Each structure stands twice: as C-alpha cells, then as structure tokens.
Predict the 3D structure of the following.
Amino acid sequence: MYYGWYIVFAGVILMACNSSIGIYGFTAFIDPLALTLGWSYAHISLASSLRGIETGALNPLMGALGGVMPTLLPTYRAYFGVRNFGKILGLINLFFTIGTIAGPPIAGMFYDAFGSFESIWLIFGAATVLGAVITITAPPVP
C-alpha cells in the first residue's frame, strides 16, 4: 500500500480524537468533571476559558513554527498531488465528524462501565500517540 495512505490514516486518528474530546465533546464531560474533581461549574468554565486564551495566545507561535494545518495540507498534497487533494480532505473531515458525534457517547459508556474517564483518556491518548508515530516515521516525499 502507498505510504501516503498511512499519513492519511494518522490524520484521521488525530482529527477523530481531537474533535471528539478536545473540541465538540467537552460539554459532555462537565458534570463528570465536577463530580470527579469536586469543581464547581465556574471552576470548569474558568479552566476552559484559560485553555481558550492559551490556545489563542499560542496560535501565532504555532503558525510561525509551521503549526498543524499549515504542515498537514502541504504534506497531503505532496504525497497525493492536487488531483486527489479533495478526496483526502473529504476523508479526513468525514472522520473528524464521526469523532465529533461518536466520541462523547463512547466516553460516557466507558464512564458508566468503569466509573471514571481514565480508561478512555488512555485509549484516546494511545490513538493520538499512534497517529503521531505514523506521521513522524513517514518516509520522505517521493
């Protein structure tokens, strides 16, 4: 199989994990976070707001260093060319959406089954590391 598809697979994993927990799924964890950490909703809102401020403050630095999307899109184009660019982005965005929809209910099922989010965080963390390893070990662009 062409190695570029491994890069796409890594992007799919990373986008699905990021969208399911980090972006759209966070609100599903507010009550369990309040119970687990003993935080009020105000504390959780403050922590989430600080995360947003930190992200906004670091975005110029991320952009200057290449960032994520500024490097992923040219990488996909380099491996697959312009002709397949739309297919690749469509595939990655499909899994971004699937992660957004499926991630919070799956995490909720793990919480119900095990009484904490520790196991699902480990699974999503391992998937993220797998995606990063696949990306880092990619051979040079042909």
Summary: Residues 25 and 104 are 5 Å apart (CA to CA). The chain has one domain: 4-136.
